[in-house]
Amino acid sequence: MIGAKGKREFSPASELLKQCRAPRIREAHFDDYRQIANLESRFDLAPKPYEEWVHLWKNNPLYQELKADWPIGWVLEDAQGNVVGSMGNIPLLYELDGRRILAASGRHWVAEKEYRSASILLLDRLITQPLIDLYVNTTVSAASVPSVIALGCSPMQVGTWDEVAYWITNYLGCFTTLFTGKNPLAFSFWRGSWRHLKATGSRLAKVSRHQTSKHSLNDDDRDFHAEVRACADFDDRFDGFWDELKRTNPHQLLALRSRQFLRWHFKYAILANRLWIATVTDGPRLIAYGIFSKTSNTTTGVKQVKLVDYQALNGSPGILGMLVSWALDRCRAEGIQIFEHTGRWLEQGEFFQTEAPYRRKLPSWQYFYRVNNPGLKTVLSETNVWVPFLFDGDATL
Q: Is there a single domain that holds both residue 236 and residue 114?
């Protein structure tokens, strides 16, 4: 306001408004955990327990290498030093043509409502950090899409990342959960009805209830005997598989999948019995695997399993079919109600487009990336370089 002598004076309210509009940004530290977790919980972001949260960095083999050169994230502070915004910064490693590609993915972009406009600073720090070659994000919400696009990110051009292909593996249980859950409108989320589920039950059984343990396939014009088996952990076969996978696919951008890195990535999912690991072997040789994550849908309460990673030495869709069929049978055996997949092989004529009986739309495209290294922009503009999966970014962390 203007004072009696014509000078501009500031009321406490206007000063507070000024402070709200200009919070301070700084690197996050491990001792910020309590404030960050409180902020996340207020906006329904399910904070991890401290041990699991710290694990994202301290036990990350790549972070152990980078250490002081890598910030664990950034926070916004108000004038009183309170954390009013936060963004985690997870280091990830890719390989392409024998070259290491340093990437980053975020975790839980969150801010108090009055600081939402300033929180773009957190996203900017993450995406444009000079140390990284590549930024990847596999959990972009509809509200975040304009911001990531404004900061130069592009939607992943391989796969369909705004749809889910799914099977109903227990349709009576699914129906019951949807109609007795906390959200009375949840069933409309699946665009179905009891009559629809009942009518398609016999088709579902025909699609997926077939022999899954042993199949005869063809690889390099020779027959071999493949078998699907559950695996409790990532054993030393995964190191040999990873070495062979990158050797036979040198021109593809592959997220690091060594035994050590897989164990770090999925440690707490395994401990909580939220992960299925299925291996496909030809004798003692590991030739493919699928990783499946168990969750409960936060909107509907439905128990579901999703395919979060699949790798095969020959890329055979027949092997993918074996793993999906194995997962469908296990879903039924364990009372899981939905098996779903998003991303690759949902395009016209691909495996999930032809085999999955149902599809539903997501609120937005979920996979975005930005190439920060100018020397990689040309090569990563080619679609055949990419083999994207939910494993790539933050979706399974």
A: no
Q: Tell me the mean pLDDT in the region 324-345.
A: 96
Domain shared by 147 and 227, yes or no: no
The whole-number pLDDT of residue 31 equals 97
Answer whether residue 373 is part of any domain. no
| Among candidate residues 112, 134, 156, the one where a domain is terminated | 156
The CA R_g of the chain, rounded to the nearest whole Å, is: 23
Q: In this structure, are 40 and 97 located in the same domain?
A: yes
Predicted confidence band of residue 297 (pLDDT cuts 50, 70, 90): confident
pLDDT at 313 over 60: yes
Q: What is the pLDDT of residue 335?
A: 93
pLDDT score of 55 more than 90:
yes
Residues 147 and 191 occupy one common structural domain: no
Q: Flag whether pLDDT at 137 surpasses 60.
A: yes
Separation CA 35–CA 68 (nearest Å): 22
Question: What's the 3-state SS for the chain?
Answer: CECCCCCECCCHHHHHHHHHHCCEEEECCHHHHHHHHHHHHHCCCCCCCHHHHHHHHHCCHHHHHHHHHCCCEEEEECCCCCEEEEEEEEEEEEEECCEEEEEEEEEEEEECHHHCCCCHHHHHHHHHCCCCCEEEECCCCCCCHHHHHHCCCEECCCCEEEEEEEEECCHHHHHHHHHHCCCCCHHHHCCCCHHHHHHCHHHHHHHHCCCCCEEEEEECCEEEEEEEEEECCCCCHHHHHHHHHHHHCCCCEEECCCHHHHHHHHHHHHHCCCEEEEEEEECCEEEEEEEEEEEECCCCCCEEEEEEEEEECCCCHHHHHHHHHHHHHHHHHCCCCEEEEEECCCCCCCHHHHHCCEEEECCCCCCEEEECCHHHCCHHHCHHHECCCHHHCCCCC
**Tokens 């691909």 sit on residue:** 350
Condensed to tens digits (0 to 9), the pLDDT of residues 89-107 reads: 999 999 999 999 999 999 9
Distance CA 91, CA 103 (A): 6
* pLDDT at 263 exceeding the cut of 60: yes
State the CATH number of the domain containing residue 118.
3.40.630.30
Domain with 345 in it: 161-364
Q: Which of 124, 156, 188 is the last residue of a domain?
A: 156
